[in-house]
Amino acid sequence: MLEAEGFAHPLGTAVLVRGAGQSLLRGEVVGFHGERSLILPFDTDAPVSAGSRVEPDGHGGQAQCGPALLGRIIDAHGHPLDGRGPIVSRSSWPLAGRRVNPLIRSRVTRPLDVGVRAVNALLTVGVGQRVAIIAGSGVGKSVLMGQMLAGVDADVVVVGLIGERSREVSDFVETKINGALRERSVVVAVPADHSPLLRIRAAMRATAIAEQFRSEGKRVFLLLDSLTRVAHAQREIGLGLGEPPTMKGYPPSALGLIPRLVERAGADRESGGSITAVYTVLADGGDTEDPVVDAARAIVDGHIILSRALAEQGVFPAIDIARSLSRTMPDVTDTAHLVAAVRFRRLWSSYEENRDLLLMGAYAPGNDPVLDEAIARREAMLGFLRQSPAERATLDAARAALVNGFGA
């Protein structure tokens, strides 16, 4: 943390610090100590000495946007990482977004095809919806994200890879963002070894890019992996500034950042564009009551919880249907579809609630007709959930399979 005297600029101002040998260090004003400004640098390796000059960086609060970014991979500063030369664009958007009247956000009334049968049929996503994928480590989160990216029906795809391992960033780009998808996608990547401020700015840049495309009337699919890493980054900054820790060490600013980021997505009534956003949330140790998980689940329009027990049985995507929910599904589906989904969920929940009795052999068939049907159709339900990574299930096909198999 650096302290600057005589730098009367507001919170969030991007700065340039001229170090030894005319080296430049970029940073941001993150707080104040009396009349001094507290500056967090993006890179701590640059040589800086006492008395170094601090200047405002006029371009630090804007994100370069527009069609020039399509097919490109950039970092938190907007610099290309793909070795394909500089990006030239005259379009820009504030990193922190623009305040809008909440009435400009339109209702979610149209379904969105994401190419995953279980999601399309049982947790139908709407255009402009915000969804959280909640999972522990190693239960197929990345595979599900890849399936959704490959099958989603959108004009532009924006991916933010925040705080992941460098190997995973390279692997994700090469295996999930390829072919025709690459030409209509933008990837913002910041590995885990970068400063916490860069991780936050990367998430804000990805969201700003999506917002600019939405203002042009485009249907944007935003995937941010992961929201937990963004909250962790803000926790580091908040604790460094002396904020009081609350649950599990999270200061208020870390949990307050989640709604500020998520609320920027949605459908725009004026432009006709939309941002359908998917945020991955890491449930540390499988704890779905973690503060970040709870904060994310409260602000999004639906959540998909992945089950380790299903993953261990070889069921992928390992979606826990009973605990997952799409709040906008009644608004984007017809009655027959909704009735079939409710029946599937009822059978699934009945089996899960009585699993222990069944394993002990304590249940006598005939006592509960719903449970009897759930037992008889268990393999059919698991088969409905299973989908190989290369398979794509359209929304119409998923709906037809659900209605034909579990309709009234």
UniProtKB/TrEMBL annotation:
GO terms for molecular function: ATP binding; ATP hydrolysis activity; protein-exporting ATPase activity; proton-transporting ATP synthase activity, rotational mechanism. InterPro entries: AAA+_ATPase, ATPase_a/bsu_AS, ATPase_alpha/beta_chains, ATPase_F1/V1/A1_a/bsu_nucl-bd, ATPase_T3SS_FliI/YscN, P-loop_NTPase, T3SS_ATPase_C. Residues 127-310 form the AAA+ ATPase domain. Its EC number is 7.1.2.2. GO terms for cellular component: cytoplasm; type III protein secretion system complex. It catalyses: ATP + H2O + cellular proteinSide 1 = ADP + phosphate + cellular proteinSide 2. Keywords: ATP synthesis, ATP-binding, Bacterial flagellum biogenesis, Bacterial flagellum protein export, Cytoplasm, Hydrogen ion transport, Ion transport, Nucleotide-binding, Protein transport, Translocase, Transport. Pfam families: ATP-synt_ab, T3SS_ATPase_C. It is found in: Cytoplasm. GO terms for biological process: bacterial-type flagellum organization; protein secretion by the type III secretion system. Belongs to the ATPase alpha/beta chains family. PANTHER family: ATP SYNTHASE (PTHR15184), FLAGELLUM-SPECIFIC ATP SYNTHASE (PTHR15184:SF81). This is Flagellum-specific ATP synthase. It comes from Sphingomonas ginkgonis. The lineage of its organism: Bacteria, Pseudomonadati, Pseudomonadota, Alphaproteobacteria, Sphingomonadales.
